[in-house]
Structure prediction request, 241 residues.
Amino acid sequence: MQRYFIEKKQINNNIITITGDDVHHIKTVMRMRINEKVLVCDEEKTYLCSILNITNTVEVEILETLDDNVEMDINVTVAHGLVRREKMEEVVRRLVELGCYSYIPVNMTRSVVKHKEINIERLNKIIKEASEQSQRNKLMKISEVINFNDLLKMIDSYDLVLFAHTLYKDQVNLFTEIKNKCKNILVIVGPEGGFDDKEVEKLIKYSNLKPVSLGKRILRTETAPLYIMSVLGFLGEQYDN
Ligand code: SAM
Prediction:
């Protein structure tokens, strides 16, 4: 069933008013009619609703509040060296599907892309679309582009930081780390050219940071976050079941 994200302020008693691009989607793309059912989510609860009225907004009536949490137990944040716009859009879309909690684009020494090429508003639209498609309960968060030094300031606030670096020999075992039941994990992935030596020197000083291997082959920067998110999803969800 089609899902739409709304803000709490759009709920009035048991009526929800859907506005913006979702109205076009309901009317023109899905060609929905009065009484058809949709799922509406305010990031806390999901409501099964019936369409009451379609004009330049869509009014729906709440029929039932559902208990449908598909979010991961761990919050995984991916800090990613800046990549080209189209690549970033694709990475963001896939990370939403894989259950990622938050994405932070980081300007690193070897990033070839400029800040101003990144359109956060467009990325937020992609996140909303992908979250609706993958039936998530929460929208993945995305921050403005930050500098490498700002990333360093955040590291202490995570239980575990997985540093994906191709040149490390003594990497940790992801399986063991995830079994330690961390709640907030930060994953750091370099840009196309990888990390600069000074960045590596600064990162490895943090005691909660563990260098990890993503296998024997070198992955593209747009593949690496998806690989690690899939492994974390498997270890945290599938393997536990
Ligand atoms: N020549 C660069 C290097 O060796 O660092 C290649 C960078 S790779 C295209 C981009 C990023 O993906 C890396 O900085 C790292 O974060 C991640 N990555 C790719 N393959 C990896 C692997 N096998 N193990 C760990 N990290 C990997």
